[in-house]
Specification:
Radius of gyration: 20 Å
Shape: globular
Largest sheet: 8 strands, parallel
Strand content: 5-15%
Order of helices and strands: HEHHEHEHEHEHEHHEHEH
Length: about 325
């Protein structure tokens, strides 16, 4: 009964921030070889995601799952490019639609190749965009440098203008022209970087904070150092592309490429809280949750971590929601 009374009280005083959120599910697994990641959008929804966001006072609209068509295209060492091209083009269009509707975007993957579409749509709408790529991996390979051919290891290289000359012609990807400068991208949580990726990071002076930097400076300072580098004037629209494998596998075991020594959930939540406080975080991707990896306890732990990260990015604060101006006390009957 106490819970119902509290809800009635806060409903009466109008504790709402009136932010609008649009959710897109991307049940996509063709950017890598492990099945199961395509189940994540519906599993995360079923775990109560929308209700949790609505409890923050958000106006939430679920735009459903991406549906796409493929074409018959092939490029050496890029697995399932026809699927990647079709899915990410449709996702880009959906992101643009949601931003045009005046909503912030939450994209739930699926593997990290979907970042091609979500970021492309954001850049096409907002133009002046900065990206925080929170991930154990740099995802900076091209088809010439990738050892696996998995496109989920290539999205940053595909999106950034400085690396455009490193690619051959990609049939089916004509809709996607790299418009994002690598200077507008910051990595956080890196701890598994290929030799070529390290060379690119050093050559272009990419803003990159590995786990040793998080340990040295703390996540709070790392976030603000990253923003100072990629958004020094504080005027860019922010996009977080959050790979669940940025977390330590003890926090999120159900993912395809886990790497020990990652972020704690507490660090990830704080990072998202700080980014939300900028009031410029307009798009969030949450990717690489795989409900087919591990037992039910592992899956539940990973899904719960994903929801905590998402909540923090859209306004949940561990200090509790702040009452509106003019409300200084709570009626005693709330506690009856």
């Amino acid at each position: 009964m106490l819970g119902q009374s509290v809800k009635r009280f806060f409903s009466k005083i109008g504790l709402r921030n009136h932010e609008k959120v649009g959710i897109i599910g991307v049940p996509f697994n063709k950017g890598q070889k492990k099945g199961g990641v395509e189940l994540a959008p519906d599993v995360i929804r079923s775990a109560g995601l929308i209700q949790e966001l609505q409890s923050l006072g958000l106006d939430v609209h679920d735009y459903g799952n991406v549906q796409y068509q493929t074409s018959n295209v092939e490029v050496d060492n890029m697995m399932h490019l026809n699927h990647v091209a079709g899915c990410t083009q449709k996702l880009s269009e959906m992101v643009q639609r949601i931003l045009l509707d005046g909503r912030n975007v939450l994209t739930i993957g699926g593997d990290h190749s979907i970042g091609i579409g979500s970021i492309d749509g954001h850049v096409k709408m907002k133009k002046n965009v900065a990206i925080l790529w929170i991930d154990a991996h740099a995802d900076l390979n091209t088809n010439k440098t990738s050892e696996s051919g998995n496109v989920h290891g290539m999205p940053v290289a595909l999106l950034t203008s400085e690396l455009a000359d490193y690619w051959p012609y990609l049939p089916g990807m004509d809709w996607q022209q790299p418009m994002l400068s690598i200077r507008n991208v910051a990595y956080i949580g890196l701890r598994s970087v290929d030799r070529y990726e390290r060379l690119v990071i050093e050559k272009f002076g990419i803003t990159a904070f590995g786990m040793e930097d998080v340990e040295r400076y703390g996540i709070h300072d790392v976030i603000h150092m990253a923003l100072t580098k990629i958004d020094p004037d504080g005027n860019k629209s922010l996009h977080v592309s959050f790979d669940i494998d940025s977390l330590d596998p003890l926090e999120a075991p159900s993912t395809g490429t886990p790497v020990r020594g990652g972020l704690s959930l507490r660090e990830a939540v704080h990072a998202m809280e700080e980014l939300h406080r900028t009031r410029r975080l307009n798009a969030v991707d949450l990717v690489e949750v795989n409900p087919k990896i591990g037992n039910q306890m592992s899956v539940d732990l990973t899904v719960s971590a994903a929801i905590h990260v998402i909540q923090a990015g859209f306004g949940y604060t561990r200090r509790g929601l702040k009452a509106p101006e003019g409300v200084t006390d709570m009626p005693l009957q709330v506690f009856k």
